[in-house]
């Protein structure tokens, strides 16, 4: 009982790390809403705001927000105007986040089901606190001797973000032009060589949301989560050069791995959610358990 309570306490501390914006930035009330075409699409920190306001023809300071110039009337014009600024900022090394520039864009929307207002390189979205959407696949097996085991990957040391950290088996953001299931299938093949035939077993199990903050910016993220039971003889292998290796871990070992400093903080909520749903993190301590559940389903409010 004591061991379980200690583990629950450590998991809650981890949840506070991946939801750290709620404990620091949001309470300060210093960030300004970012408005595009009348829609709030993000939140901008004061340090980032200071640089963006060097471009008053692009970003308009209002009494209670920062607004993209409303004279930009369509998706392409908004995209091109912001991209020009971001490329200039990248050349000047204004923002740490832009060192991870990928030439891969995310759509910027007022809500997931709304029409996109513009697109932006994924590395830049954290500067504006724009909500990102991604897909995560929990790969697992039911081992006859070890019980439930989870596949984890170690990210390549050449990755632009979180290099060398342990991570979920498969994950990837929803880039422009890709839906949820399309992204799941694409990332499963690119990251872990999972064939389409095995993807027939995939199960959509919900989503988790969190609000992370780092020196790079703000990350209000929603992850669409899938479970995939794999054959015992299947071993994932990487196709795109972004994964160093995979390991199959029993649940107790996997929990210690995600609690370590070697695990990617923003991937932890997906694994914790998996452990809760499969009965390996349970409510013996009702107070700590309820706090953990609350941390997994943060409402990504902007104010």
TrEMBL record:
PROSITE patterns: NUDIX. It holds the Pfam family NUDIX. GO terms for molecular function: 8-oxo-dGDP phosphatase activity. Residues 132-273 form the Nudix hydrolase domain. This is Nudix hydrolase domain-containing protein.
């Amino acid at each position: 009982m004591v061991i379980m309570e200690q583990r629950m306490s450590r998991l809650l501390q981890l949840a506070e790390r991946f939801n750290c914006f709620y404990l620091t930035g949001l309470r300060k009330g210093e960030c300004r809403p970012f408005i595009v075409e009348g829609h709030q699409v993000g939140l901008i920190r004061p340090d980032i705001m200071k640089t963006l306001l060097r471009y008053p023809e692009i970003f308009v300071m209002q009494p209670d927000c920062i607004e993209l110039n409303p004279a930009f009337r369509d998706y392409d014009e908004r995209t091109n105007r912001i991209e020009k600024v971001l490329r200039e900022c990248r050349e000047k090394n204004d923002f740490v986040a832009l060192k991870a520039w990928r030439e891969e864009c995310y759509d910027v929307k007022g809500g997931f089901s709304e029409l996109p207002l513009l697109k932006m390189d994924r590395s830049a979205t954290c500067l504006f606190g724009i909500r990102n959407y991604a897909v995560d696949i929990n790969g697992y097996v039911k081992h006859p001797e070890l019980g439930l085991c989870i596949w984890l990957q170690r990210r390549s040391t050449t990755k632009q973000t979180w290099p060398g950290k342990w991570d979920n088996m498969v994950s990837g953001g929803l880039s422009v032009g890709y839906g949820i299931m399309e992204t799941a299938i694409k990332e499963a093949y690119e990251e872990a060589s999972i064939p389409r035939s095995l993807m027939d077993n995939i199960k959509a199990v919900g989503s988790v949301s969190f609000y992370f903050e780092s020196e790079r910016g703000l990350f209000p993220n929603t992850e669409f989560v899938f479970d995939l039971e794999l054959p015992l003889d299947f071993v994932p292998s990487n196709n795109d050069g972004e994964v160093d290796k995979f390991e199959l871990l029993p649940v107790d070992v996997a929990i210690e791995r995600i609690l370590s400093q070697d695990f990617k903080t923003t991937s932890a909520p997906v694994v914790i959610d998996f452990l809760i749903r499969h009965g390996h993190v349970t409510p013996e301590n009702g107070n700590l358990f309820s706090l953990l559940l609350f941390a997994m389903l943060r409402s990504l409010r902007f104010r």
